[in-house]
C-alpha cells in the first residue's frame, strides 16, 4: 500500500539510530541485529499513521512508534528462546547466533530502551503512554503464558482461545494505534474507538493466520502450510472441529494431535479434511468476518475524514486478503 511508504521511510531512518550505545558490544550488537532483520513493521507504522490521520505531524509520534517496535522485537527474542526456534525472518535467531544468556539480557535491555523513548514526551502524555504500554506488555506476557499452558490442556474453550490471541497479538495492535491518537491529543472517545478497532482487527488477523496455516497457498503464505498441525497446536480450527464435529471426528483429531510421524503428509491431509467436513473451516471464516466487521463498524464512529477512514479500511482489507 503506497500511502504507508512515507511512514516506513521515516521509521527506518530513526530505527537505524535507535540504539546509539556501542559498549558492551555483546549487549547491544544483538539488539541492532534483530532490528536489522526487517519485517513489515506494521505496528509502529500504525502509530505514525493514526497520529497523522488525527491531524498531527506524525513525526511527533516517532518515539512512541520506536517503543512499540523495540517491545515487539524484545518479545520475539524471548519467544524464540521459549520455542527453541533456529530462524527468525530467514536468519539465525539471537540465541542461536550468540547464546541464550546473551539473548535474555539483550532482550531485557530492549524492553528498558523501549520505555526510555516515552521520556521524550511531556509528563501528562508520558504518563498516559507509559500506562498503556505497561498494561499491554503485561497482557502480551499473559497471552504467551496461556498459549504455553494450552499445549498441555485438553479442555481449552473457544472463549479462552480468543482471549489468548487477543492478549498475545491483538492488544499490541490496538495499543500501537491508540498511542498515535494519544500523541495527536484525540478525544477520549476516539482514542478508545481506534484502540478497539485495532484490537478487533488483530483478532481477525490472527484467526486468519490460523486458517491460512492449514488452507493457505504455500507459494504465497510465507510460512510452512500445516505447521500448526505438525506441532499439534490446538488452534481455533481444532477446537471448533472437536466441539461441533462427530464423536468419531473428535476422537480421530485427538489421536492425530498426539502423534508426531516422520512424514506428516497424511496427517496434514486427514486433519484438513476433518476441518472441512466438520464445518470448522467455515465457522472460522465466519469468525474472521465477525471481528473484521466489528472493527469496521467502530471505524465509522471515529472523528476523522471519510478519506482517512477509507484508507484504514483499505489497510484492514490488505491484512485480510492475503492469498489463500
Commentary on this structure:
With 324 residues, this protein is mainly α. It has two domains: 145 residues, Farnesyl Diphosphate Synthase (Orthogonal Bundle), CATH 1.10.600.10; 138 residues, Farnesyl Diphosphate Synthase (Orthogonal Bundle), CATH 1.10.600.10. Helices cover 72% and strands 1% of the residues. It has 15 helices and two strands. Strands 1-2 form a two-stranded antiparallel sheet. Strand 1 and strand 2 form a beta hairpin. Helix 9 runs antiparallel to helix 14 and helix 11 crosses helix 14.
Integer tally of domains:
2
Q: From the alpha carbons, calculate the radius of gyration and give it in angstroms.
A: 20 Å
The percent of residues in helical segments reads over 70%
Overall body shape: globular
- Please name the CATH topology of the largest domain: Farnesyl Diphosphate Synthase
Mean pLDDT: 93
What structural class results from the helix and strand content?
mainly alpha
**Distance between the ends:** 19 Å
Fourth-level CATH superfamily of the largest domain = Farnesyl Diphosphate Synthase
Percentage of residues in strands: under 5%
Largest sheet: 2 strands, antiparallel
> Which CATH class of the largest domain is shown?
Mainly Alpha
CATH architectural name of the largest domain: Orthogonal Bundle
Written as H for each helix and E for each strand, in order along the chain, the element string is HHHHEEHHHHHHHHHHH
> Which strands sit side by side, in order, in the main sheet?
1-2
How many beta-strand runs?
2
**Poorly predicted residue ranges:** none
Number of helices: 15
